[in-house]
Description:
Layout: E1 9-13, H1 14-18, H2 23-39, E2 45-50, E3 63-68, H3 72-79, E4 85-89, H4 96-106, E5 110-111, H5 116-123, H6 125-131, E6 141-145, H7 151-166, E7 174-178, E8 188-190, H8 200-203, E9 209-214, E10 218-228, E11 232-243, E12 250-256, H9 263-275, E13 281-291, E14 300-306, H10 312-319, H11 324-332, H12 338-344, E15 351-354, H13 367-377, E16 384-390, E17 394-403, E18 406-416, H14 419-422, H15 426-437, E19 445-449, H16 461-475, E20 480-484, E21 487-489, H17 491-496, H18 505-513, E22 520-525, E23 530-536, E24 539-540, H19 547-553, E25 556-557, E26 572-575, E27 578-581, H20 590-596, H21 617-626, H22 637-666, E28 670-674, H23 678-688, E29 692-695, H24 702-706, H25 708-721
Parallel strand pairs: 1-2, 1-4, 2-3, 4-5, 16-19, 19-20, 22-28, 28-29
Antiparallel strand pairs: 6-9, 7-8, 7-9, 10-11, 10-13, 11-12, 12-15, 13-14, 16-17, 17-18, 20-21, 22-23, 23-24, 23-25, 26-27
Helix pairs in contact: 4-5, 5-6, 15-16, 18-25, 20-21, 20-22, 22-23
Amino acid sequence: MMSINDDSILLFEYFTASGEKDKCIISEAEALIFSLLDDLKDYNVTVVLNESYKEIIEDYDNVTPIFINEDIISWLEKNAASFKKAIFIAAENNNSLYNITKILEENNVKIYNSSSEACYNSSDKFVSYELLYNIVPQPRTFKLKIDKVGYWKRALENLYKKWHAEKPLDDLKLIIKPLVGVDCENIKIINGIDDLDYSLEKIFLPGSRVIVQEFIEGTDISVSLLCDGSTAIPISLNKQIIDLTGDKGTYLGGQIPFESKFKDLAFKTAIKAVESIDGLKGFVGVDLVISNDEKDIEDVYVLEINSRFTTPYAGLKKIANINIGSSIIDLIDKNVDIKDLNEKIDLNGKIDLVQAEAVADLIEANSRNAAKAASRSLTGEFSNKVNVLNEALINLRVVVDFENNEVKNIEVDFAYLPMWSNNEALPKVLTELIENICPIDEIDAVGISMTAELVDAYDTKKDGVLDVVKKCEETFECPTAYVGIDGMLSKEEIEKTPLKAAAANWIATAQIATLISDNCIFIDTGSTTTDIIPIKDGKECAIGRSDFERLATGELVYTGTLRTNLASFLDKVQLHGKEYRVASELFAQTADVYTVLDLITLDDYVCDTFDGESKSKKSCMKRIARVLCADLDSLMEDDVVELAKFTHQKQVEQIADALKQVSETQNLDLIVTTGLGKDILDKKAAEFLGLEVKSMDTILTDEECVVAPAVGTAVMMNKFLN
Length: 722
């Protein structure tokens, strides 16, 4: 057990502790955590951060840092008992807010945040709706399950007709969103009865629970409050700028404070809502809307309650005359009366919030930006930028800069997109990915390799290829070309022979293998599949050309580091000296195994879990136990670890079997590894066979190895252009 000062307050923010890499998310997260750190300079603080923050945190004399390389929930499960007090920042994603709070409560940690019960009651939008029913004005709300049979379609139609009949003279619009969600993620606006196109199945997976709400046209606002557990006081009224186009709402920023003739009413309504839910404490936000319809029954409606620090806190830190973070500690420790505090609150000036406001604007330390600038200066002036879109299942995007036909810089980004359920979102995702790194008009060309043509959204592989091509051509104005089994192909060539581009990403991967050796077997295990590519005299020499053929030659194994169902390669497992047959269900996947064994991080676990629950180590253990029709009441955690180790070895042997076939056929004994599974699976498979192993990480970073097909596509595209 670690030794911690009894007076120290444990402080962390979910994304900065867990190592989130998404630029929009992490910038906002940094703004919040460093604002709170500044507020607590008079306290002994133990802050948990990802290892990447070592240089920045040195500026805080009162802080004892703990640097981790795992998700914060897993870390808390092991270490929470070492602390007496905690204050933290987290969102509702994957029930993280509730799970964290529950872990701290179970370890008797005093928290300066809302209780787990309050988090649950606020996060579940229908539960909070029912708790506040007839207490504060709310839009009409209904809960719905997206069932596989499609009964939800009739229910939605009947609901629309019922609500419209209640107000027949008014136009009725509906908004549909997840039961538990954050930042307007995954929404659908229904503009009228003719707009009931039932496209929800492309947004929400079967089994998802959603809420259907009457859409109130008006001004989106929020109220930031402090609460001592029973009494709430308002700090500010904030304007929210929200874009509700497409199937995802986007918070674009806001204004603090916001002046409105409905300010007092909004304050009164927010206070009543917060005080009606037991256990809300600390910083709390209430989202509301001011109705534009003067004929409406109410002027202000409550949309949802956020039992947590919200984005306005970073702005209020600048303009509030009180120390908000310190005030929270004093309130809950009963060192200050909330009514006295209410009389002191004043805001000096206004501030416009831009989404994910840069932390550099909030803290003086600039070491991060300096380092970033220094890194960019090493790359010089680039003559050509090639954007590479690779794999539409888990979109791996690379921007590669060339100078004199040599790679000078590689920028990598990721976006998870389940093409089987939401292929219509591909153009939007591609655009957002590029804009995360550089303006889209700075891209000179786009090279594309694909593996998504086989998903259930398409009747045939041909349909899949042509749809991906169509969406890419509509998205990009610059020159585009596609990786095919015979090299780069134009749109016109693809349209004539679409199957030449089907699952051809391994062709691109082979392009960089020769940087290691002209005679080798290049093995690349990603999230879902393993490519085993023979190379002789500097050229790819695979026997199979299509996936169908390569499954027979050993050059393709449908097994991966993340998304592979354990039952697909396990028949029996050994435990306690006995053999157990496994349950052939979608209980656990390989990502669960490698999370339990600490072989991947939370950042690596980009796919959905089979049960829709958390990606914490404990949740992964629960899923693995189910493979034996068990749970953590009947199996010890050490048993689950043993199961994970056994499973790992069986997947290694599965890959080794195919690798042996290719090695013996081609008479090659040097193995070059890349991809997410290069060390976890590929290296071990080669060593299992007694073959020589080299890793692509000698010339690429680990991050670049994961997207090796995309790097290879960039090389092919650059040659194609020149």
